[in-house]
Amino acid sequence: MRGRSLAVVAAFTVAGGVGSLYLENAMFQTTEPGTAAEAAVPEYFFDQFRMRVMGADGRPEYVLGGERLIRLSGADSSEIAAPRLRITRTREAPWDVAAERAWLFEASELIKLRGSVVLARAAHGASPALDVATEALDVDTAGRVARTDVPVRVRSDTWQIESAALVARFEEGLLDLTGNVHGTYRPAAEAR
Question: Which of 10, 21, 70, 157 could connect to 45 by a Cys-Cys bridge, CB 3.0–4.6 Å?
Fold first, then answer.
């Protein structure tokens, strides 16, 4: 009887382990933008992570964090749930970016943000606070440039501009709105 009990316990243990492995693999299936979904095994993952990337001068260039980062074996990118990105600038206020998910391509220093992307900058000197809303944004961290080819809305306290696409050059502080641009201006007295 003792041998049979051990065999039953061993069978349930093995079945539970296999089931657990199957569920874990199913949970980590991901779809990279523009590719078909493929099952892969996680190489590593981090929960509640934050990483700081420093420039040659020793100052932080950007800080990237999120709820979870998953690197799948054989993948050329890592997927990030609820990413938060801060792009620092030399003499200006930093830009903060939030989205539903992102993919980090380490080799090309590219971060692809997708789903309810908000790019925000606090007021600094004579420059008003700004926020940019879109559904997709690709950030080239090496070139310190962000691009999107989907509609964007740029807003401050007194005006709002919509465009079909955008190129943001962080160091120069430029937002290039590249097509089908519409805007609204409200005098400061009416904005409040």
Answer: 70
The residues that bridge with 120 in the sheet, in sequence order, are 96, 131
Q: Yes or no: say if 141 and 111 are a contact pair by the CB < 8 Å rule.
A: yes
**Vertex 69, ends 74 and 117: CA angle to 5°?**
115
Q: Flag whether pLDDT at 163 surpasses 50.
A: yes
Contacts 24+ apart (CB under 8 A), 63-66: 63/88, 64/104, 64/111, 66/102
Count CA atoms closer than 13 A to 48's CA, side-chain side. 0
Q: How many Å apart are CA 52 and CA 159, to the nearest integer?
A: 33
The string of pLDDT tens digits covering residues 70-124 is: 998 888 899 999 999 999 987 889 999 999 999 999 888 999 999 999 999 999 8
